[in-house]
Write a structure and sequence with these properties.
This is Transcriptional regulator, GntR family domain. Pfam families: Aminotran_1_2, GntR. Keywords: Aminotransferase, DNA-binding, Pyridoxal phosphate, Transcription, Transcription regulation, Transferase. Its EC number is 2.6.1.1. This protein is of the alpha/beta class and 467 residues long. It folds into 3 domains: 95 residues, Winged helix-like DNA-binding domain superfamily/Winged helix DNA-binding domain (Arc Repressor Mutant, subunit A); 110 residues, Alpha-Beta Complex (Aspartate Aminotransferase, domain 1); 241 residues, Type I PLP-dependent aspartate aminotransferase-like (Major domain) (Aspartate Aminotransferase, domain 2). The chain is globular and about 75 Å long. It is built from 16 helices and 17 strands.
C-alpha cells in the first residue's frame, strides 16, 4: 500500500496543498482548488492516495465537515475516487467517447473561489424581488433602462474614468453593437478599415451588410498611423475598427502612444473609430482606451461576454461626445428590438451590488492560472503569454495551421487556424488557443499536454489503402 501523498513538502517533492487565502471563496472550494491545481501540474497523479479525511482536516486546520464537503465536490468533478477501506485516490482521466475538447471559443473560465451557482441564484432572486415579473416578460424600449445605463457607467468607470449614463446604450451583445454601428456609420459598398488579423465577427457583419473590410498595415505596436491616413484617403473610408487591448487573436496590446497617434490620424481625416474592447478589464496595466484620446471620435464597445459570462448577452456602447442616440438605436432596433430583459436585469443587479466585481476577480485569478499552464506546457520561459483568455501560438515550419487544426481535431481537440482571422491570401502560420472553455484546470492541462505532443511531432504523410 502506498503512503498518502503529503500535503506539505517532503523527500518525494513539493506537497499539493497551499495556504488558504482570505477572500478566495469557501475553504472547501479552496481545498478542491488545491487538488485540481496539483493534478494539473503533476504534483498529484492518478492513483496517488490522499490522507484520510480526519487527518487532512487536522493538517489543514479545518473541521471534518469542510474536508467532507471538499471531497464530495472533488468527486463530482471526477478529480478523486473512493475505494472503500483502501481510502481516497486521485482518479484516472475520465474517458468520454467522442468528446471534443474545445480550445477554439473565447469564453471566460469558471471563476476561481466563486460559487457561480449561488451567485446566479441570489442574483435572480434579487431581480425578482425588485422588479415586476410582468416587466421582465414584455417588450421594452431598446437601449436599456435608466438603471441599466447607470450600471454600465459604473462598470466602465475604471476604464473610461468619466462616462455618463446618457452616453450609453445597452445592447444584446457586442456583435449586435458592431452591426448597429456599421449600419449607422457606413453605406453599402463602403470600406471599413481594420488590421490584417481581426475579429471574424467584424468580417461576417460587414459581408452580410454589403460593406468591405480593407486592411491597414501594422507593426509590433499595431495599426500604423501613416498607413491608416493613406488608406483613409485612398478608400474614402469613414469607419475604422480597432481591438487594441489583448487583441483577438494576437494578444498584442497597443501602447498608449500608438493609440494617441491613431486617434489623431482619424480626427485629421474625419473618420469614426469603432473601439471593440472586450478584454480591457482582464488585462494588467492596459493603457487608456483610444476613446480617452479622442472622445468625440470614438464609439466605444464593451461586452460582458468575455469578462463575466456570454449568457448575460449584455454589451454597452459609449457614444462620442454630443452624438445623438437616435441613429444607433434605430439601426439596432432594425434587427434586435431590445436586449433580453431578464439577463440584462441580472447584469444590472450584479454590477450595482458588487457581485460582478467579485465574479471578475475570480475570472482574472483563474485566467492567470490557466495562462501559467499554457506557459509551462506550450511556451519557453521567455514567451510567457500576456493577460487574457487566449494565446496565439506560432507553429513550427513543418506544420501549417490548416494541417495542425485537422490533426488536432483527429485527437479530439478543437483549435482555431489563423485564416479565420486573416483578411488576405497568406495568413501567418499560427493558431489561437482559447483557455476558458474547458470546465476544469485538470482537463485543460490534459488537453494542452496532448496539443504539445502533437506540435513536436511532424505531420504524417497519408497512405491510401488500395484494394
Amino acid at each position: 500500500m502506498h503512503p498518502s501523498k503529503s500535503i506539505q513538502d517532503d523527500d518525494d517533492g513539493p506537497g499539493w496543498a497551499a495556504a488558504f487565502v482570505r477572500g478566495e471563496g469557501a475553504r472547501y472550494r479552496q481545498i478542491v482548488g488545491f487538488i485540481e491545481r496539483a493534478v494539473g501540474d503533476g504534483r498529484l497523479n492518478p492513483g496517488d492516495r490522499l490522507p484520510p479525511q480526519r487527518e487532512l482536516a487536522r493538517q489543514l486546520g479545518v473541521d471534518l465537515t469542510t474536508v467532507t464537503r471538499a471531497f464530495t465536490e472533488a468527486k463530482r468533478r471526477n478529480l478523486i475516487e473512493a475505494r472503500g477501506a483502501l481510502g481516497t485516490f486521485v482518479a484516472p482521466p475520465k474517458v468520454e467517447l467522442a468528446q471534443m475538447v474545445d480550445l477554439s471559443m473565447n469564453v471566460p473560465p469558471p471563476p476561481a473561489g466563486v460559487d457561480f451557482h449561488d451567485l446566479l441564484q441570489r442574483g435572480l432572486s434579487q431581480v425578482l424581488l425588485r422588479t415586476d415579473a410582468h416587466l421582465l416578460m414584455t417588450y421594452q424600449l431598446g437601449g436599456g433602462s435608466r438603471a441599466d445605463r447607470a450600471a454600465g457607467a459604473m462598470w466602465l468607470k475604471p476604464v473610461l474614468e468619466s462616462v455618463s449614463p446618457q452616453q450609453l446604450i445597452a445592447c444584446p451583445g457586442a456583435q449586435a453593437a458592431l452591426a448597429a454601428l456599421i449600419l449607422t456609420l457606413t453605406q453599402p459598398g463602403d470600406a471599413i478599415l481594420a488590421e490584417p488579423l481581426t475579429y471574424p465577427g467584424l468580417r461576417a457583419a460587414a459581408e452580410q451588410l454589403g460593406r468591405r473590410v480593407v486592411t491597414v498595415a501594422t507593426d509590433d505596436d499595431g495599426m500604423r498611423p501613416d498607413a491608416l491616413e493613406q488608406a483613409l484617403r485612398e478608400h474614402g473610408a469613414r469607419a475604422i475598427y480597432l481591438n487594441p487591448t489583448i487583441q483577438n487573436p494576437t494578444t498584442r496590446t497597443m501602447p498608449a502612444h500608438r493609440r494617441r497617434d491613431v486617434a489623431l490620424a482619424a480626427q485629421q481625416c474625419g473618420a469614426w473609430i469603432i473601439e471593440d474592447d472586450p478584454y480591457w478589464l482582464l488585462g494588467s496595466d492596459a493603457p487608456p482606451p483610444v476613446a480617452h484620446f479622442a472622445p468625440s471620435q470614438v464609439y466605444y464597445v464593451a461586452t460582458l461576454s468575455k469578462c463575466l459570462s456570454p449568457g448575460l448577452r449584455t454589451a454597452y456602447i459609449r457614444l462620442p461626445e454630443a452624438r445623438s442616440r437616435a441613429g444607433v438605436l434605430a439601426a439596432l432596433r432594425s434587427f434586435a428590438l431590445m436586449s433580453t430583459p431578464l439577463s440584462t436585469a441580472l447584469a444590472t443587479q450584479w454590477i450595482h451590488e458588487g457581485s460582478a466585481a467579485q465574479l471578475l476577480a475570480g475570472i482574472r485569478t483563474e485566467a492567470f492560472a490557466r495562462r501559467e499552464l499554457a506557459r509551462q506546457l506550450l511556451f519557453s520561459a521567455d514567451q510567457a503569454p500576456p493577460s487574457g483568455i487566449h494565446v496565439w501560438h506560432t507553429l513550427p515550419s513543418y506544420w501549417t495551421s490548416l494541417a495542425l487544426t485537422q490533426a488536432a481535431r483527429a485527437q479530439d481537440l478543437r483549435v482555431t487556424a489563423s485564416d479565420a482571422f486573416h483578411a488576405g491570401p497568406t495568413p501567418p502560420n499560427a493558431i489561437r488557443i482559447s483557455l476558458g472553455g474547458v470546465e476544469t484546470r485538470a482537463h485543460l492541462a490534459a488537453a494542452l499536454k496532448k496539443l504539445a505532443e502533437l506540435l513536436v511531432r511532424r505531420p504524417q504523410m497519408s497512405r491510401e489503402i488500395v484494394v
